[in-house]
Amino acid sequence: MSDYKYSMPIYFEDTDHTGVVYHPNYLKFFERARLEILGVEHISKIWQEQGVTPAIYKIEVTYKNPVFFGDRIDIYSSYKLDGKFKVIWYQLAWARGVIAAEAQTHIIAVDSNKKLVPIPDNLSSL
Amino acid sequence: MSDYKYSMPIYFEDTDHTGVVYHPNYLKFFERARLEILGVEHISKIWQEQGVTPAIYKIEVTYKNPVFFGDRIDIYSSYKLDGKFKVIWYQLAWARGVIAAEAQTHIIAVDSNKKLVPIPDNLSSL
Amino acid sequence: MSDYKYSMPIYFEDTDHTGVVYHPNYLKFFERARLEILGVEHISKIWQEQGVTPAIYKIEVTYKNPVFFGDRIDIYSSYKLDGKFKVIWYQLAWARGVIAAEAQTHIIAVDSNKKLVPIPDNLSSL
Amino acid sequence: MSDYKYSMPIYFEDTDHTGVVYHPNYLKFFERARLEILGVEHISKIWQEQGVTPAIYKIEVTYKNPVFFGDRIDIYSSYKLDGKFKVIWYQLAWARGVIAAEAQTHIIAVDSNKKLVPIPDNLSSL
Asked: CB B40 to CB C10 under 8 A?
């Protein structure tokens, strides 16, 4: 279990016409945080060499407070390996001094035929 | 409780480099199905006249099978009002003869200040 | 040269916080129209069997009038083959009784190594 | 006329099933570069205080070379005010030692009724 912080601004692309961040975009934000923690080059290398890639098995997101254009979101992340086939991430998006959203994400690894494979040893934080 | 079907094709915009539908996009698909069921013009009118809009409180998605460019997804939806402030939707995305993903979504209504308001009488399927 | 019409609604996902359709999304809309005209299954089959896919070489879009959540856009499309390697599409997005945007798009075909190949005979409207 | 550099990684969200960056996403990348150059907080403040926001009038993008998951794109930007109502940006996306894409974007300013207004004095790089 480790703790990491990832910080990002909110642009036009992130919002919808009601004035706040569009809800599916948080899944992108949480993924960006995970990729920066592990290293996108590392994930890319495993894909190119082994054809193995992370895949989302389950995600649960609770939306607590709205976030607006021009705000900055800080994402706090931790994870643990759950058996040989799954990594569980706990992530918190923080903005305007309150929790914006929180998520629990179950991630597996699949090969190029989309078949389940064990989480690579060097990728326990996939 | 009602049952509805919404059908849609998978385009380039829906996929990622691993060859399958990118996971946050299912949240868009489930929302498209909800909007078509209720009528996007109806949701738009409530927004323009009352400043009230649906907001996602919680979403849980389980991803079961991959979907590819050129596939067609059928989304089956049902919902129920849960108290005065919440609508719960159950949705199933079906493709290639199997379940692609399923979701449970808790939806609330907020005013133009992003404050919680009761689900509008004429919008119990918000 | 042919003329086609494709019609679509505007959802939350299409807008940004200024209240109108977010400008890059028109490129998705124009592509949806092209794919429906030719058949997404057809494009998918050429990809699976030959590894050949359309790629955008150049696009020019002029934005004329704003489009809002709940509006409906009609896209009018025509195209012509320009030599053996390029198809040029002319597309017009129409909403609220006026032109919303118009685009000219130059499309080529590439193989699985991203090398230029001639437009497939059966895909002159790629 | 000024020159600026903005650098960003390519994630899953940026790609499509053909393995490369999906073409409309470059419009997001070019906008991110513009917003970071001027300051997204500054653009946000003008929106909140005056209801004025940048709007795209015309964009022309040429796609030169493919970019892949895990790559890094550097965006070089320069701009000039063209009269009182328009700013023209020239932007180059650079990856893998070659030009990935280049764009010329004509940007105007609109008020909360989507009517054209002069580029704000303090926003000549809108």
From this structure: yes
- In tens digits, chain C (126 residues) has pLDDT values of 458 999 999 999 999 999 999 999 999 999 999 999 999 999 999 999 999 999 999 999 999 999 999 999 999 999 999 999 999 999 999 999 999 999 999 999 999 999 999 998 766 554
Q: Give kind and range of the element (H or E) at residue D48.
A: helix D40-50
Q: Is A103 left (phi over 0), alpha (psi -120 to 50) or beta?
A: beta
Question: Are B58 and A61 an interchain contact pair (Cβ–Cβ within 8 Å)?
Answer: yes
Helices D40-50 + D25-38 axis angle, to 10: 80
User: Measured in Å, how far apart are chain C's first and last C-alpha atoms?
Assistant: 13
Tens-place pLDDT, residues A42-62: 999 999 999 999 999 999 999
**3-state SS class at A37:** helix
CATH number of domain containing B117: 3.10.129.10
Phi, psi torsion values for B106, nearest 5 degrees: -100, 120
How many domains, chain A? 1
> Can you tell me the ipTM of this complex?
0.95
Distance of CA D7 to the CA centre of its chain: 13
- Partner C contacted by A69 (CB < 8 A): yes
Q: Check CB contact of D110 with chain A, cutoff 8 Å.
A: no
What are the start-end ranges of the H helices in A1-126?
25-38, 40-50
**Whole-angstrom distance, CA of residue B44 vs CA of residue B52:** 9
Q: What are chain D's partners, defined as 3 or more CB pairs within 8 angstroms? A: A, B, C
- CA angle, corner B90, sides to B89 and B94, nearest 5? 135
- List of E strands, chain D: 4-9, 53-63, 72-81, 87-95, 98-110, 116-117
In sequence order, the 6+-apart residues with CB closer than 8 A to the CB of C102 are: C61, C62, C64, C90, C91, C92, C93
Beta bridge partners of B9: B72
Cα gap C37→C43, rounded to integer Å: 11
D90: containing domain: 4-123
CA triple D12-A94-A75, angle to 5 deg: 35
